[in-house]
Amino acid sequence: MIILGIETSCDETAASLVSEEKKILSNVVSSQFKDHKPFGGVVPEIAARAHLDHIDFIVKKAFEEAQLTLDDIDGIAVAGGPGLIGGVIVGVMMAKGLALAKNLPFIPVNHLEAHALTLRLTNDISFPYLLLLISGGHCQFLIVEEVGTYIYLGGTLDDALGECLDKTARLLGYSSPGGPFLERLALKGNPEAFVFPRPLKGQEGCNFSFSGLKTAARKVIMENKGTTPSFQEDFSASFQEAIGEILKDRCQNAIEMALERKPDISTLAVSGGVAANRYFYECLTFCARNYEMTAVSPPLHLCTDNGAMIAWAGIERLKKNYVGSLSFAPRPRWPLEDLKLGKGD
User: Fold this and answer.
1) So what's the pLDDT on residue 340?
2) Strand pairing class (129-134; 139-146)
3) Which residues pair with 30 in a beta bridge?
4) Among 153, 172, 114, 112, which Cα is nearest to 136's?
5) Within 13 A of 286's CA, how many CA atoms are on the CB side?
6) pLDDT at position 344, please?
7) What pLDDT is stored for residue 345 in this prediction?
8) Res 225: pLDDT
9) Measuring CA to CA, how many Å separate 154 from each of 110, 208, 330?
10) Got the DSSP string for 63-76?
11) Is residue 82 classed exposed, middle or buried when 0-12, 13-18 and 19+ CB atoms within 10 A define those classes?
12) Gyration radius (Cα) of the chain, Å
């Protein structure tokens, strides 16, 4: 089985062909970084227009790199939400057109589910497992019971971690995504140079809150004018250290909550764009080891949005005959816990 996956939910236009044997036959990604850089963040209308301009070329290139044609594939999967609705519409319309033209299964995929299942493409893990999904728009712990079945344990009460990193980096003069800039700066800094709050640390549950940390970071930057390299390095190291402690504390509670519900869980999966931060991943790995669990994350190039994760989620869904209808409506919001199984999703 070979599936085409199309991703257009934010600011990457991506297409990939993936086989049931976990072989990524092609994985083409067109970044809109330069388009949005002057604005300090993603502009929805610019993103939608860029997807429209590039989608044909990206899909064609994915087939060329895989040396395949539409006649060689078994279905078309597409990110149907959540995301910026203009971009989601572009991808969904493209997928519907191809599916209709070739009478192929149309598989709308929840973007968050694709992140949740990517670990099964890149690692040999079985259900159930505990997932921490951390990205620019999401930050939540879930138990992944099965394809299409998720138990929400906790999430952010305000800002997502990725958003906190992006906005803080912007105050230092860096563009989005800000996480990689802060991570590089932190390597040379002193993590004890500044003291930042650790919201919700020591409290019950596994919810997050990053708005207070973001405000504190802004105050430190304004007080120090945030210009010298040494300040930025020490600031980033201290800021990252605070987030690492928050992640370890929240992760410990999440693991205990997950084990109460599913004692056979042995894997902590970390997915989403922020999972590319190696410091944060090491903090979570340390926490998992304390419970004799294994922590896994996708390779760096599959942490951020890509078509391969959409294609793999499509394979997982098609194997269970969870296909969609051509009447499917793109969704700007689509919580994982609301995911339904079967035709019409």
Assistant:
1) 64
2) antiparallel
3) 13
4) 112
5) 12
6) 43
7) 54
8) 80
9) 19, 8, 26
10) HHHHT--GGG-SEE
11) buried
12) 20
Neighbouring C-beta atoms of residue 146, cutoff 10 Å: 11
Rounded Cα distance between 48 and 105, Å, is: 25
Distance from C-alpha of 332 to C-alpha of 336, rounded to nearest angstrom? 13
C-alpha distances out from residue 243 to 22, 36, 219, 230, Å: 34, 27, 17, 20
Handedness of CA 296, 66, 6, 175 (dihedral sign): positive
Give the tokens for residue 277: 């931060």
Burial string for 157-170 (b: 16+ CB within 10 Å, else e) reads ebbbbbbbbbbbbe
Taking CA atoms, 89 is separated from 82, 130, 183, 248, 329, in Å, by 11, 31, 34, 38, 8
- Cβ of 251: how many Cβ atoms within 10 Å? 25
Has this prediction a pTM greater than 0.85? yes
Residue 77: strand pairing partners: 5, 107
218-226, Cβ contacts within 8 angstroms, sequence gap of 24 or more: 218/168, 218/171, 220/194, 220/196, 221/168, 221/171, 221/172, 226/171, 226/172, 226/173
- What domains, with CATH codes, occur in the chain? 2-116+302-338 (3.30.420.40), 127-297 (3.30.420.40)
Q: What's the chain's average pLDDT?
A: 94
| Residues in the chain with pLDDT values less than 70 | 340-345
Please say whether the beta carbons of 196 and 240 come within 8 A. no
